[in-house]
Amino acid sequence: ANLANQLSPTSAEHVRAGLGDRIPLIVDGGESNVGIESTVVDVTGAVPRILRPGMIGADEIAAVAGAVARGGEGGSVLRSPGLLEKHYSPRARLVIRSWIDEADLVRQIGELGGVGEEVWVISHTRLPLSGRISNVVMIPAEPEAFARALYAELHRSDQAGARLIVVEEVPVSGDWDGIVDRLRRASSGG
Known about the structure:
The longest helix is centred in the C-terminal third of the chain and has 17 residues, at 143-159. Helices cover 29% and strands 15% of the residues. Strand 2, helix 2 (58-65) and strand 3 form a beta-alpha-beta unit. It has helices at 9-19, 58-65, 102-111, 143-159, 177-186; strands at residues 40-42, 49-52, 69-70, 93-97, 119-123, 135-138, 164-168.
């Protein structure tokens, strides 16, 4: 079979860019319905423990398992891939911010040292429209759709030469836990 014809160019390019020549073959299952990595659950104890949040939340796991504990890898050995403090990070500095209006966002970008074409804004609710910020993308404000679009936009920003990526802060609720976790891991802490 010709695997090259089965690859989604966008997905394969992202994998190849991240792993380079360290792997001999990329098999792509197509566009993900979720967008971020899986929820990681440790089921070795009496109560399942969420080690890494994903799009399947604690309430959904508790509905099946009866109870669920959160967090706490415990110990120095990682029990699962993807639990490192830093996971995928764009080359550009990524910060998570909220803003009152466009003037507030422009002020914050200035304080971060961002200028011109090197700044990308990924928004889900507050869309700057005046043109003072050149690179603005709005992705859905619904958690599953946001998760599907997030990495594609981060990769696109990187490919375009962004030096600063500002992502609009997302809600803090169970539906957004996995996204909050991935943004925290990808950000520079700013």
